[in-house]
C-alpha cells in the first residue's frame, strides 16, 4: 500500500497570492516542504513552520539572470560572490550565470569550480559559472570546451569583449554544437568602437565625445547569425541595444535559426541624453542609445524576438566611476532593480515579463530542471514572491551589492521583491536577506 509522504525539513505555506507561471495567472496557495512544492492533501500531516500572507502579491518561479558580473576572483573590492548573491536574492533571483571576465579568467575547470564552490558556500542563489570562449578572453585560442562542459558549463562567452575573429568563432560554433552548449556573444566590432564613451549619434556629436556606432553591434549580430546558419549551432546574443539588432534577430528567428537574445533593464529605460551630465554612472557597454532604440528593444521583448531580461550587473567601485568619462569603466549594477525597472517600463502582460525574467532565461542557460519550473507539486521550491504594485526609489547606500553604481536614482520603480525561496529555504524574508 502507498504511504502518504511525511516531511522532515522546514515547511512553508504561502497563502492568498496570485501564482504566475507558464500556465498563466491563478489564485492558489503554495506549500513547500523538503525543498519542493507539495500538495498537503496528499500528506499524512501538514503543519507549516512559516506561513506567509501573499494577499496582493505574485508568487512565481524564481528569476534567472543570464548576465551577472560577480568579480570574484580578482576584483573583490567591487563585489564578491557572497555580496553579489545577496543582491541577486534580494532582486528575486534564484540562479545567476556568472560572467567569465574575472582575474584569473573563467577559462579552465579550476576557476569555474572555485566560482561554483563560493556560490554554494554563500547559499543565497545558484551561481552557475559561464566559461570563456577563448583563453584569457584574448580572442586567439579556444578554451577546452569539452572539459568545461563536463564540469557543468553550459554557456560560453568572452563577455566584456566579442570574439573578433570570424574563423575562430566559426570553430567555436562547430565544437559547441556537438557538446550541447551555447555560445553567447558580446556583439562589438572593436575596430569601430576604439576610444568610444557613448552612443554615436546626435547627442554625442553635440557633446564632442567619441562615439560607439550601432553598426559595431549589428555587424557582429549579422556575422553570428550567418555562422549559425552555416553551422546549425545555437547562439545567444547578450545585451542587445539597437533597433537594427532587434530586426536582425527577428528575421533570423523567422528563418527558424536557433538564436536567442537578451536585453538589459537600462536599455529598456534610459537613453544617451543622460550623458549630457558627463557622469560616468551612465557609461555602459554597449552604450545607452536613443529613444527609438529603447522602443525597438521594448517591442522586441513584447513580440518575443528578445527572450530574456538580463541585468549585466557590473559592479565598479565608486572611485572608478567618479573618473572622467574616458577613464571610467563601463557598467551598472542591476540585480536589485531589474524587476522594478521592468514593471515600470514595459507595457506587456505580467506573465510575459516574468517569462523573460524566469523560465525563458532558465531554458537558455539550460537550468530548466531546477529553475523556472511551474509552480506545482513536485517542482523544486525555487520561488519569488513580489508586490507588483509597490512603487519605490532606489537608495544606493542600501543596496546589498558591494558597489553602488546604479543609474536609477530618482527613477520611479514599480514592483518589489518580498520573499525569495531557494530549495525550500528563505534567502529573502519580508524584503531582508536571511544570511
Ligand atoms: O558595461 C559593461 N560592463 N559591459 C560589459 O560588457 C562588461 C561589463 C563589466 O564587466 O564591467
Write up this protein.
The longest helix is centred in the middle third of the chain and has 18 residues. Helices cover 27% and strands 21% of the residues. It is of the alpha/beta class. It has two domains: 104 residues, Urease, subunit C, domain 1 (Roll), CATH 2.30.40.10; 302 residues, Metal-dependent hydrolases (TIM Barrel, Alpha-Beta Barrel), CATH 3.20.20. Helix 6 runs parallel beside helix 7. The chain has twelve helices and 21 strands. The radius of gyration is 21 Å and the shape is globular. The N and C termini lie far apart (42 Å). Helix 7 links the parallel strand 15 and strand 16. The strands form five sheets. It has a seven-stranded mixed sheet with strand order 3-2-7-18-19-20-21, with helices on one face. Strands 11-12-15-16-17 form a five-stranded parallel sheet. It has a four-stranded mixed sheet with strand order 5-4-1-6, with no helix packed on it. The structure holds (4S)-2,6-dioxohexahydropyrimidine-4-carboxylic acid (DOR). The site of (4S)-2,6-dioxohexahydropyrimidine-4-carboxylic acid has 12 residues, from loops. The site of (4S)-2,6-dioxohexahydropyrimidine-4-carboxylic acid (DOR) has 12 residues, from loops.
Describe the secondary structure blueprint for this structure.
Elements: E1 11-15, E2 18-21, E3 24-27, E4 30-33, E5 36-38, E6 50-53, E7 58-61, E8 63-68, H1 81-90, E9 93-98, H2 109-122, E10 126-129, H3 145-150, E11 155-156, H4 166-179, E12 182-185, E13 198-199, H5 202-207, E14 211-212, H6 214-231, E15 235-237, H7 243-254, E16 259-263, H8 291-302, E17 308-309, H9 318-321, H10 338-345, H11 350-357, H12 359-364, E18 383-392, E19 413-422, E20 425-429, E21 432-433
Parallel strand pairs: 1-6, 2-7, 8-9, 9-10, 11-12, 12-15, 13-14, 15-16, 16-17
Antiparallel strand pairs: 1-4, 2-3, 4-5, 7-18, 18-19, 19-20, 20-21
Helix pairs in contact: 1-2, 4-6, 6-7, 7-8
Bound molecules: (4S)-2,6-dioxohexahydropyrimidine-4-carboxylic acid.
(4S)-2,6-dioxohexahydropyrimidine-4-carboxylic acid binds at residues 69, 101, 159-160, 186, 284-285, 312, 314, 329-331.
Amino acid at each position: 500500500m502507498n504511504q502518504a509522504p511525511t516531511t522532515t525539513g522546514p515547511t512553508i505555506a504561502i497563502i492568498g497570492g496570485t501564482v504566475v507561471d507558464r500556465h498563466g495567472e491563478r489564485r492558489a496557495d503554495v506549500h513547500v516542504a523538503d525543498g519542493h512544492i507539495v500538495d498537503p492533501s496528499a500528506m499524512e500531516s501538514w503543519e507549516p513552520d512559516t506561513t506567509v500572507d501573499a494577499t496582493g502579491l505574485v508568487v512565481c518561479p524564481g528569476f534567472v539572470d543570464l548576465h551577472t558580473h560577480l568579480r570574484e576572483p580578482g576584483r573583490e573590492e567591487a563585489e564578491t560572490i557572497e555580496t553579489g548573491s545577496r543582491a541577486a536574492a534580494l532582486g528575486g533571483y534564484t540562479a545567476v550565470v556568472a560572467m567569465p571576465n574575472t582575474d584569473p579568467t573563467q577559462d579552465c575547470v579550476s576557476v569555474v569550480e572555485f566560482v561554483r564552490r563560493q556560490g554554494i558556500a554563500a547559499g543565497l542563489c545558484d551561481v552557475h559559472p559561464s566559461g570563456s570562449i577563448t583563453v584569457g578572453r584574448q580572442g586567439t585560442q579556444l578554451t577546452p570546451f569539452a572539459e568545461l562542459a563536463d564540469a557543468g558549463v553550459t554557456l560560453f562567452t568572452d563577455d566584456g569583449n566579442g570574439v573578433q575573429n570570424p574563423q575562430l568563432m566559426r570553430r567555436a560554433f562547430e565544437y559547441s554544437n556537438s557538446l550541447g552548449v551555447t555560445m553567447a556573444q558580446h556583439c562589438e566590432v572593436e575596430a569601430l568602437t576604439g576610444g568610444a564613451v557613448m552612443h554615436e549619434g546626435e547627442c554625442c556629436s553635440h557633446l564632442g565625445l567619441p562615439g560607439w556606432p550601432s553598426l559595431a553591434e549589428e555587424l557582429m549580430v549579422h556575422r553570428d547569425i550567418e555562422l549559425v546558419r552555416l553551422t546549425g549551432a545555437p547562439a545567444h546574443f547578450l545585451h542587445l541595444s539597437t533597433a537594427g539588432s532587434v530586426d536582425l534577430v527577428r528575421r533570423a528567428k523567422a528563418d527558424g535559426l536557433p538564436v536567442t537574445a537578451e536585453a538589459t533593464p537600462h536599455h529598456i529605460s534610459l537613453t544617451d541624453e543622460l550623458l549630457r551630465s558627463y557622469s560616468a554612472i551612465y557609461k555602459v557597454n554597449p552604450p545607452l542609445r536613443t529613444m527609438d532604440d529603447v522602443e525597438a528593444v521594448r517591442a522586441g521583448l513584447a513580440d518575443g524576438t528578445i527572450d530574456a531580461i538580463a541585468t549585466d550587473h557590473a559592479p565598479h567601485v565608486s572611485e572608478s566611476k567618479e573618473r572622467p568619462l574616458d577613464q571610467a569603466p563601463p557598467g551598472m549594477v542591476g540585480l536589485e532593480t531589474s524587476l522594478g525597472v521592468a514593471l515600470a517600463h514595459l507595457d506587456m502582460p505580467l506573465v510575459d515579463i516574468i517569462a523573460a525574467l524566469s523560465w525563458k532565461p532558465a531554458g537558455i542557460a539550460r537550468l530548466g530542471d531546477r529553475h523556472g519550473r511551474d509552480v506545482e507539486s513536485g517542482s523544486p521550491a525555487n520561488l519569488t514572491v513580489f508586490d507588483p504594485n509597490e512603487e519605490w526609489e532606489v537608495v544606493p547606500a542600501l543596496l546589498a551589492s558591494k558597489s553602488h553604481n546604479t543609474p536609477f536614482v530618482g527613477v520611479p520603480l514599480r514592483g518589489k521583491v518580498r520573499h525569495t525561496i531557494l530549495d525550500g529555504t528563505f534567502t529573502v524574508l519580508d524584503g531582508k536577506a536571511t544570511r
